[in-house]
Structures are given as C-alpha cells and as structure tokens.
Design brief:
161 residues, two-stranded antiparallel sheet, 6 helices, 65% helix
Length: 161
C-alpha cells in the first residue's frame, strides 16, 4: 500500500475512493448515452441495433475503411441472417447503400448515406459540441490521461468478446 492511499480493493470489492467514484460516474454516463441513443432510435423509427450499425458505418467512413456485412456482423455480434436483415432495413430506409468495394470490386461493402450522417448530426451534434467544449478546457496532459483511461476501459470491456 502506498502511504496515504487506500487499498485498491477489499475482500468485498473495490475500496471506496475517488477511483471508484469515477468508475460509477463512467457507468452513469454510459447509461445516459445509451438513453440518448434510444431516444434517437425511437424518434426515427429505428431499433437500437440500427443506431449502433450507423455508428459503425460512420466510424469506418471517418477512418477511410470499407465496411462489409461480415465485418459489421462481427462488430455488432450478429449472425449472418441478423446482419442481412439489419442492412436490408437500413437500406430500405435510405440510410445505407450496398456498393462494390473500391479495393476489390468483387466484394460488396456498405456505405452510409449522407442523409444518415445529417440525421445523426442534427440529433447528436449538440452533445458532441458540448463534449468538445468541455475537452477544450483541458490541457494536453489531461487530454492524454482521459484518452488513456477511456481506451483502457474500452479494451477491458472488449476483452469479454
């Protein structure tokens, strides 16, 4: 034990302290973000999985990567039939389109339509802008700590996959 610091855990679980307070705050934030996403889904006649798929498509677009149905299924933990139904639903709503891959024309990839990006921006934009505003109040060291913490939590959560 480091002098002046409480133990990290006790036989009954993590010791109370600022670390556990932050973990609970992260949990509460995750719940609120989930509820926000659910409101978006409900307002737009979507299933919550549709929203997660659109996020995956937008992340791929931002990274300059192609998203196949197989890759989407892996990201979302869906089987082939569920992934096909999901893509069909989003394509029918005009939110995505199936196209030939640029790197391999034999491959079919799914691209997010601009309409979906605009829909997401209209709803999530204020939350994103507020988050960026909060982060602009941090110095480089704080931003690095936040990034490292969130990356570590994400990796820990993904370890269960």
């Amino acid at each position: 034990m480091i002098a002046g610091r409480p133990p990290v855990s006790t036989p009954s679980g993590p010791a109370p302290g600022p670390e556990l307070e932050i973990v609970h705050l992260l949990r509460a934030t995750t719940v609120e973000l989930g509820l926000h996403s659910t409101r978006f889904a409900q307002r737009n006649g979507m299933h919550p999985t549709d929203v997660r798929a659109l996020i995956a498509f937008m992340d791929a677009r931002r990274a300059g990567e192609e998203m196949s149905a197989g890759r989407l299924g892996g990201v979302l933990g869906l089987n082939s039939a569920g992934t096909t139904a999901l893509v069909d639903r989003l394509e029918g709503a005009g939110l995505v389109r199936r196209v030939r891959g640029e790197r391999d024309r034999r491959r079919v990839v799914i691209e997010v339509e601009d309409r979906a990006v605009e829909l997401g921006q209209a709803f999530f934009g204020p939350l994103i802008e507020r988050s960026v505003e909060l982060l602009r109040g941090c110095d480089d060291h704080q931003l690095a700590a936040i990034r490292d913490f969130l990356t570590g939590v994400r990796e820990a959560a993904a370890g269960g996959r």
